[in-house]
Amino acid sequence: MSDIDSAQDCLFCRIVAGDIPAQKVMETDRVVAFRDIAPQAPVHILVVPRTHAPNVAALAAAAPEELAEMAQVAQRIADAECGGEYRWIFNTGAAAGQTVFHAHGHVMNGGTLGWSA
Ligand code: AMP
Q1: pLDDT for the residue 68
Q2: Fewer Cβ within 10 Å of end Cβ, the chain: N or C?
């Protein structure tokens, strides 16, 4: 199985497939967005591609149209939830805090967000 195939043991692939419940807020042909289970801000939504890729750079190489659609979905969610302004974070690598190795962007706002690494 290649990286861009759906990985059976991937949490976000299973959420995308509907095998694990999540509080979904938007779905398109290429993208699914759902609320983070442990929100770090009043608005904290994960935007994920349907294609499995281990991080955002791998997704950009394998399926750039999905990354572009993720950006559009992130903006639509922010328009609906926090006045169109938001932080969009891609943790890449365990040392940077990535814990789920299926590309995803964190859409965050709704309060005062300090800068923290
Ligand atoms: P990262 O640390 O960048 O890999 O982000 C993974 C995020 O997934 C974390 O913010 C977790 O709180 C979130 N998360 C883990 N499991 C679930 C789940 N079942 N539903 C929604 N969010 C989840």
Answers
A1: 98
A2: C
Active-site position among 44, 52, 104, 106: 104
How far is residue 117's CA from residue 114's CA, in Å, rounded to a whole number? 10
Domain range for 26: 7-109
CA distances, 45 to each of 1, 2, 3, 56 (Å)? 29, 27, 24, 16
Q: Report yes or no on whether pTM surpasses 0.85.
A: yes
User: What CATH number has the domain bearing residue 23?
Assistant: 3.30.428.10
Q: Is 52 a catalytic residue?
A: no
Q: State both tokens at 78.
A: 């922010």
DSSP lists the bridge partners of residue 47 as 33, 105
Rounded Cα distance, 45 and 25, in Å: 8
